[in-house]
Design a protein that fits this description.
The chain is mainly beta. It folds into three domains: 166 residues, no CATH class; 130 residues, Immunoglobulin-like; 80 residues, Immunoglobulin-like, CATH 2.60.40. 8% of the residues lie in helices and 47% in strands. Strands 1, 5, 6, 8, 11, 12 and 13 form a seven-stranded antiparallel β-sheet that branches. The protein starts with a helix and ends with a strand. Bound molecules: calcium ion (3 copies). The site of one calcium ion (CA) has 7 residues, from loops.
């Protein structure tokens, strides 16, 4: 009887395992690889490499060389430090306390079975410590090994690696490339690199939402997004998609054919496909020209997210997102409001805005009518750094609850 039950259990386990394997193979794994060109070698005391594993503009790990010399001895350290929230480095513990990052061979499976050290204190994870007579650390004299890394994106774990070489006396280290798995909670093999093809990288998207007031003409979604690719000259396609709160009856994306890039908008899905082989610079310009319009003149206050992805012919870039805040024009009473001060005018370094109440929206246009600044603000007064702006005439609109302040100002 017991035998039967055990066999039954084993059978159902194997069936479950079989179906789990089936599920696992359906997970869309996508390695996002970045070659460092040229490789970076750190060989001076205090030298460091800031590693942004997912190229989102936020440093995730710091790799640093410390050389501590006294009259009688010299100690050299290659240290890794966690910079990103909830990030981790795979490694053993020395004396049960000090993390020693692993130096893994190619194809090691990096996932949740790795021992992950998250501790920020002591802040340093010791890859290699070499004194005159002895050394500690898994990385001493290792060539082309893989440092297991884990970051969190949107609360989910993503696994990755960085390939390094560390000198036998820990007097220098070289970082060559890195990669992470774009699918959450999915292992990555050490060295997995899409055949050496670096993924395109989108960065520098505006942080604040675009403000769209119903009745506005088509508005440019992003003016700042930057496109890079470490190994390609041309891109092949791009996808711009309205995600959050998409409404097929009122949302429209507009693109004008340019530089061999054509656009095809599918109204039913809110997806604009760009296609045609063209340079990275042309694709960046194309992304910055995509416009949004809401055709419902009385659309209620709402928001949208618009995602941007570029493909280099083989792999996709990261997904970069701009939010849009939609405000119903009828809810904004356009009257002059004299308690708000905008000064100095002309401005040189800083433009101050004071006397505001509650949540407000600040829009600034240049003389050609192009929106160059928009911001949701809750403080009673604040300042905008305009020191890098071109001199000229600008127009500012401030929506504050049901009132609006419009003013012309000059930057000299
Ligand atoms: Ca990052
Ligand atoms: Ca490299
Ligand atoms: Ca590429």
């Amino acid at each position: 009887m017991l035998q039967n039950q055990t066999t039954k259990k084993l059978h159902s386990y194997l069936t479950l395992a079989g179906s789990l394997v089936g599920i696992t193979s359906q997970v869309q794994s996508q390695v996002v690889y970045t070659d460092i060109v040229p490789d970076v070698t750190i060989n001076t005391n205090g030298g460091q490499y800031m590693l942004d594993l997912n190229n989102d503009g936020t440093v995730d790990f710091k790799l640093k060389l410390n050389i501590i010399a006294s009259s009688s001895s010299v100690v050299r350290q290659v240290n890794a430090t966690i910079m990103g929230a909830n990030a981790a480095i795979g490694g053993s513990l020395y004396g049960g306390v000090y993390p020693l990052p692993y130096a893994l061979a190619q194809n090691f499976n990096i996932g949740n079975t790795v021992t992950w050290n998250t501790q920020p204190n002591p802040a340093d994870h010791y890859m290699a410590i070499v004194a005159s007579s002895s050394g500690v650390g898994n990385w001493i004299g290792q060539t082309d090994k893989y440092l297991p890394l884990r970051i969190q994106i949107a609360g989910q774990n993503h696994y990755g690696w960085a390939r390094l070489t560390v000198a036998a006396n820990a007097s220098s280290f070289t970082i060559k490339d890195y990669a992470y798995e774009a699918s959450p909670n999915t292992p990555i093999l050490a060295g997995a690199n899409n055949g050496g093809n670096s993924s395109p990288v989108l960065s520098a998207m505006e942080v604040n939402p675009l403000v769209y007031i119903t009745g506005d003409p088509f508005k440019i979604i992003t003016s700042t997004v930057v496109l890079n690719d470490a190994n390609d000259v041309d891109m092949d396609s791009a996808s711009i998609k309205i995600t959050t709160n998409f409404n097929a009856n009122e949302d429209v994306l507009l693109f004008t054919t340019q530089n061999g890039i054509t656009g095809n908008y599918t109204a039913a899905t809110g997806v604009l496909k760009l296609s045609g082989t063209s340079t990275i610079a042309n694709y960046q310009t194309a992304l910055r020209s995509v416009k949004y319009q809401n055709t419902n003149a009385v659309a209620p206050n709402s928001s949208r997210n618009v995602t941007f992805t570029v493909n280099d012919g083989s792999v996709n870039s990261n997904v970069s997102t701009r939010a849009i805040t939609i405000l119903q024009a009828n809810s904004i009473e356009k009257i002059e409001q004299n308690t708000i001060s905008i000064y100095p005018n002309p401005a040189t370094d800083v433009l101050n805005i004071s006397g505001t109440e509650g949540e407000l929206i600040v829009l600034i246009y240049d003389a050609t009518g192009k929106e160059i600044y928009n911001h949701l603000q809750t403080e009673k007064s604040f300042s905008i750094n305009v020191s890098e702006w071109n001199s000229g005439i600008y127009f500012i609109e401030i929506y504050n609850n049901n009132t609006v302040k419009k003013e012309k100002f000059i930057i000299r």
